[in-house]
Amino acid sequence: MIKVIATDLDGTLFYPKKRLRLIPKKNKEFLTRFASNGGKVVVVSSRGFNFASKLEKKCPFNLDWIGNDGTFIKIGGKVIEESFFDSTKLKSLISYLRLNYDPGLILLSSKTHPIVMTRTRVNHITNFVYFLYEAFQGVYREPFVRSDHVFYNEIEKGETNKIMVLIGLTKKKKELAEVLTKELAEKFADFEFTWLNQFIEITPKGCSKASGVRKYLDYLGYSSQNVLVIGDSGNDAPMFDEFYENSYCMSHSPNSVKIRAKHVVDHVYDLEKVLYPLEDSSKTNKEGKNK
């Protein structure tokens, strides 16, 4: 029996984007129904603490959080677990990335700051493009800081839990990001690597969306059969592997992601037919008789 829906945000719960309402109406109605029947909804996202507070205010039901790709878990409004990088190892990794890949952009997320941007080789152009991107995000926008000082100060504080590395903006760079993710995972055992479009996402060892969902279930005393996971990106693929029988991928996802999930759906609210099939069938029969 499904007791938990673990959902990604961007491209999943927020699909299609509603820049004023945040969550599409049909998705909100479905999850409200699920929660009112005793189910638990947990967001599993690369977004962090700040965005969690914003979304919670927009929801008519209680949300739990597995944020920054599994580096923190929040249940019933209480943070039950947090994980951060070892500062020395992280600085070494960033130096390696700069030297060998010359990335277009490096971002970090920490307990204090949702996004901090550091200096890159395409300084002014990248900053301008990122500014435009953020400006058009509407209600999905997260504040960011561009500062080398803040970037490295957050690392030194030991409260950084995610790094994002932009490989490039083209389709080829997106494909390269997926390849490089695998190469880096083989070379650096102290980190977790996943990819999100043209970005490579890096978290401390043992922190992923899959591990976050596993810890969440263990805390609540639920089994793997009690959770349904849904997402759309490379960083969701570990969830599909871990909870394959009840894994759902969005139809607009890359093929390399879709093949990792057992099922494919167009929208989050399509899961209503999965969880309440008898009611859906009864409704269809009534409509047929009325005709």
Overview of this structure, please?
The chain is α/β, with parallel strands linked by helices and 291 residues long. The chain is built from 12 helices and 14 strands. The protein is globular. The mean pLDDT is 89.
Concise account of the structure shown:
This protein has 291 residues and is of the alpha/beta class.
List strands and helices in order, with pairings.
Layout: E1 4-7, H1 9-13, H2 25-36, E2 40-44, H3 49-58, E3 63-67, E4 72-75, E5 78-82, H4 87-101, E6 105-110, E7 115-117, H5 123-135, E8 144-146, H6 148-157, E9 160-166, H7 171-187, E10 191-196, E11 199-204, H8 209-220, E12 227-231, H9 237-242, E13 247-250, H10 255-258, E14 263-265, H11 271-275, H12 277-290
Parallel strand pairs: 1-2, 1-12, 2-3, 7-8, 12-13, 13-14
Antiparallel strand pairs: 3-4, 4-5, 6-7, 6-9, 9-11, 10-11
Main sheet?
8 strands, mixed
Following the backbone from N to C, one meets helices and strands in this order, namely EHHEHEEEHEEHEHEHEEHEHEHEHH
What portion of the residues fall into strands of 2 or more residues? 15-25%
Low-confidence blocks of residues: none
Structure keywords:
23% strand, globular, 291 residues
